[in-house]
Design goal:
2 copies of one chain form a homodimer.
Chain A: H1 3-11, E1 13-15, E2 19-21, E3 29-30, H2 32-46, E4 53-57, H3 61-72, E5 76-79, E6 91-98, E7 103-110, E8 119-127, H4 131-142, E9 146-156, H5 161-167, E10 172-182, E11 187-190
Parallel strand pairs in A: 4-5, 4-8, 8-9, 9-10
Antiparallel strand pairs in A: 1-2, 6-7, 10-11
Helix pairs in contact in A: 2-3
Chain lengths: 195, 195
């Protein structure tokens, strides 16, 4: 079991409806030491790739993506979820559905920050049905950038997202893959990992 | 002129309507080295305080608050802007108006992550009319926590927010205070700083 799986077992809370709460250390309160360890682990797994930029989506991906970008010594770009008056009209757009909030969002990245020379590592905290990741991939492809890999902190392995993205041929690494959750007993199991 | 003011002059873009775009290094694309330097500077200015937690609000405050929290060796908590089904009902709430998006948001923090023992450093990227900061102060006071200080990356000194918060007796430090902006010529001036 790796450091993240241990932490999920220690501090994660399994609730009915396949909800895993990790808000005491990952996506509301953040344990910055743990975030840095996550950054180093993604660097270990992707350091053979020529990463020029880390891409994520607001909000909870930002702290993690910063930690990853620091390890690679590259800038981080976060996609925004709604059209701000401070964003130029010149943006890449994808439509993304939020599993958590049951809403549709426009996800946008300014064209100034992604282009054909970029080799991207896409980072996010959770992968369930994969809508957010698919939106980031779509934006990257529209920019002519190369998606070198995708790094997820926690993947819900029993939902479709991870399979879809691996089937599309992308290199996807998840630090913890949840195989099953039991909301009644508050327990979960992890899928075995090679890493 | 400090490192941040220099960077704003180099890469910031002044637009009509008192809009300063710093999205190439601060709040869309992030220069992680600069963010780390910002973290160290806030630590230098507040290290004599007994900070137990850093508090910010999603989204663009998160990366900066992580860098600050790392310097202090404490957790970071970010307030969320809408009620998620993954948040317990047991939350502190404040109403916040967004200058950028012209919307009202509920800002919430779980009661599990703020309490009377907390000595907070509140961090955000921008301060204009101060609604976001006032919401975070309100939440902190409701939690019985002590607001030891507030750290802002860029303050629009010609708007009311900074004056209100200093008048309330809080220790507010802004790394760059914009005295005036000229959207026609794309220029700005900074207020002098003692630090």
């Amino acid at each position: 079991m790796n450091f993240l799986e241990e932490r999920i077992l220690k501090d994660g809370i399994v609730k009915p409806g396949n909800v895993l709460k990790v808000d005491s250390f990952l996506n509301h309160q953040m344990d910055v030491e743990l975030i840095d360890e996550i950054g180093r682990e993604f660097h270990r797994r992707f350091k053979h790739k020529n990463i020029t930029k880390v891409l994520t989506i607001e909000a909870s991906g930002i702290g993690i993506a910063c930690a990853v970008a620091r390890c690679f010594g590259v800038p981080m770009v976060f996609a925004k979820k709604s059209k701000s008056i401070n964003i130029d009209g010149d943006v890449y757009v994808a439509q993304v559905e939020s599993f958590t909030h049951k809403t549709q969002n426009n996800v946008i990245v300014s064209k100034r920050f992604l282009g054909p020379d970029d080799h991207l590592l896409i980072i996010d905290d959770f992968l369930a049905n994969g809508c957010a990741l698919q939106g980031l991939i779509s934006i990257s492809e529209n920019a002519g950038a190369t998606v070198e890999g995708l790094g997820i902190v926690i993947e819900k392995g029993f939902q479709i997202g991870g399979r879809v993205i691996r089937n599309l041929g992308y290199h996807l690494e998840s630090l913890a893959i949840i195989e099953s959750m039991d909301g009644e007993n508050g327990t979960l199991t992890f899928a075995p990992q090679n890493n």
